[in-house]
């Protein structure tokens, strides 16, 4: 498995964690675990390489949900609406993963670009 695939996925997710002030040691540990697991997964299914970045983001989301709560939260909707999060689309994570509001269905940002949203 080429390291550039995992380094790219790691960089994209880390940028989004930092953009939402969630790049904590616990989140980075979850990111490292997700990269390791998805590296093995991509070795088993080389055609699935295009899905790795989005799947890593989903894995980190799941890990953080269990420990610190939902991430990333939607900041684009009316602040009077109940708090809700973003999710990666397409569901399998690729080939061009993007963050989408779970309430409005609106695309918020490509993976790695939450700081620009």
Task: Kindly describe this structure.
- With 117 residues, this protein is mainly alpha-helical.
- The chain has one domain.
- 45% of the residues lie in helices and 10% in strands.
- The chain contains three helices and three strands, in the order H-H-H-E-E-E.
- Strands 1-2-3 form a three-stranded antiparallel β-sheet, with helices on one face.
How far apart the termini lie comes to 32 Å
**Strand portion, in percent?**
5-15%
* Rounded radius of gyration (Å): 14 Å
Largest sheet: 3 strands, antiparallel
**Secondary-structure element order, N to C:** HHHEEE
- Residue runs with pLDDT of under 50 for 5 or more positions: none
What structural category do the secondary elements indicate? mainly alpha
| Overall 3D shape | globular
| Number of spatially distinct domains | 1
Number of strands: 3
Helix content, binned percent: 40-55%
Please give the order of strands in the largest beta sheet.
Answer: 1-2-3
Helix segment count?
3
Average pLDDT, rounded to a whole number, is: 93
List keywords for this structure.
mainly alpha, 117 residues, three-stranded antiparallel beta sheet, globular, 3 helices, single chain
